Prior knowledge:
Strand order of the largest sheet: 1-6-5-4-7-3-2-8-9
Number of helices: 20
Helix content: 25-40%
Structural class: alpha+beta
Strand content: 15-25%
Low-confidence stretches: 1-8, 104-108, 122-131
Oligomer: single chain
Number of strands: 23
CATH topology of the largest domain: Rossmann fold
Shape: elongated
Largest sheet: 9 strands, mixed
CATH architecture of the largest domain: 3-Layer(aba) Sandwich
CATH class of the largest domain: Alpha Beta
Mean pLDDT: 85
Amino acid sequence: MTTTDTAPAGETRSFEADVAKLLHMMVHSVYSDKDVFLRELISNAADACEKLRYEGLSDPALLGDDGQPQIVITLDPDGKTLTIEDNGIGMTEAEMGEALGTIARSGTRAFMDRLADAEKAGDSQLIGQFGVGFYSAFMVADRVEVVSRRAGGDAAARWASDGQGTYTIEPVDAADAPARGTRVTLHLKEDAADYTDGFKVERTVKAQSGHVPVVISIKDKPDAEAKQIADGAALWTRPKSDITADEYKDFYRTVAGQFDEPALTLHYRAEGRHEYSVLAFIPETKPYDLFDQDRGGRVKLYVRRVFITDEAEILPRYLRFVRGLVDSNDLPLNVSREMIQQSPVLAAIQKGVANRVLSELEKLAENDSDKFAAIWDNFGAAIKEGLYEDYARREQLLNLSRFKTTASAGGWRSLKDYGEALKENQTAIYYATGSDLDRLAASPQLEGFRARGIEVLLLADGIDSFWVTAGADYYGKPFKSVTQGQADLSLIPLVEGEAPAAETSDEVAGFIAAVKAALGEEVGDVRASERLTESAVCLVAPEHGMDRQMEKLMAQGGRGGSAAKPVLEINPRHDLIGRLSGLGDDDAELRDDAARLLFDEARIADGELPSDPRAFAARLARVLGRAMG
């Protein structure tokens, strides 16, 4: 904000830059499904009621004589307004400036960029997928007024804006404000006048917000009798057999803030030492902020239907895409948000819920591989973070993991599938890491493995370079990089039709020694390769230390340090190497140029630039000139 929260009454203030940009998109974009604004405003009102219920545990005076949380929607067809009023916690004038003038949620910039892209592409569902909170009101309103009074306070304030970049805040008389809570009034645009139609609004609210844990009533006109349209009954307390798929879907959209459908629904009640209910969902689409570094979990914690916090981190971070809630019977209602993190009861709940989510995913993988593959497409990269972070569940996560491989033909393969395809004398699970699947599949380092029919995991997610080096193994088979150390392929038979490798001749051995001398300190070694069958050269990492991709990732993060010198492997059976091996001392300059060109060729095949592009161009020109006579 450009001004402080102690500004004088009625002062006009400017929105934070990101809010102004968002408002512009709301006002000027044409989206086919604008009903989302109702869900967002009702969700805010329900949260306010839940916050009051929580604070009322320690200070019952806040509830006064009106302890039943409720939301009332009032329609005014003549005045073309729609009002949503709650008797929740309310806001002070300072809190209104902070809550309605800025966006505090992390990932704002990523959301703005995605929203702009969707606007250009005509994606009418993007807002529904991500939720835009209070500001969605400007999709249907020319002007929005918010009047609020904090529970336990006497002062009330009004916030108002036309969504054009500024807003005002000023005190209001107590008689013009709710006794407690917040009233949001939307002055509807001409093309949104149908939101004063009682039938339309009631149908929309029931579909989108019928399962919020707060009673919702509607008035068809300001002086009409309020009619209850949602009873505030918590869906998760009802038996599964009484709940329809549509009800689950509607509740998911409310709790997740998305407009897709759940790919997997998990609803159960745990009994025994600790009793709690769980209603959780795995989304059908990937959230835009899945890999935001500041992003936490989205599972809410309730205690006996009282909302406590959404910051309890019920699930480990690698399951952060799961949406839903946990309602505990064992935690004390007056537990503080600070103390809750140290509760042994919560620790048991966290362990139980995480185990159940993973076991349900295992069942899905076994019973519906196509549906599981869709989930893995969206969230596999996040789940694999657990292979690095969650040692206790690593074996379970390895069983759950799916991979692209040299034998997968574009589909997913499990490690069980890989194990069933092991070759005679194969002692390791081989993998290649990188950032592009197509480049990985074409890597020269794979040639020797392909010639023997050995399947190689193609790992293109950033986390892959970390978990494979964290001591992971699968039923006694270690993971081994195809770009590190000796290939050790001599004991594994070739596929029928592949010619066996010939012995390295003295001439080729001499040329390899000359290349090593020419490159000097630029390489750790130069040696004949077992892994190459088609390419002339490739680079690999030494036996010990990091593989090539890990070195690149560390360097990108500014933690490269003194990287190990690469090893240049030369294919002694390649025609070019055979010809170059015939160069004598009279061709020392050409041999030196050839050595360095081979090194740069290997770097280029590895996705890198030549070590000295200008020198590379000069050498290439000399060699081509000589070839042309």
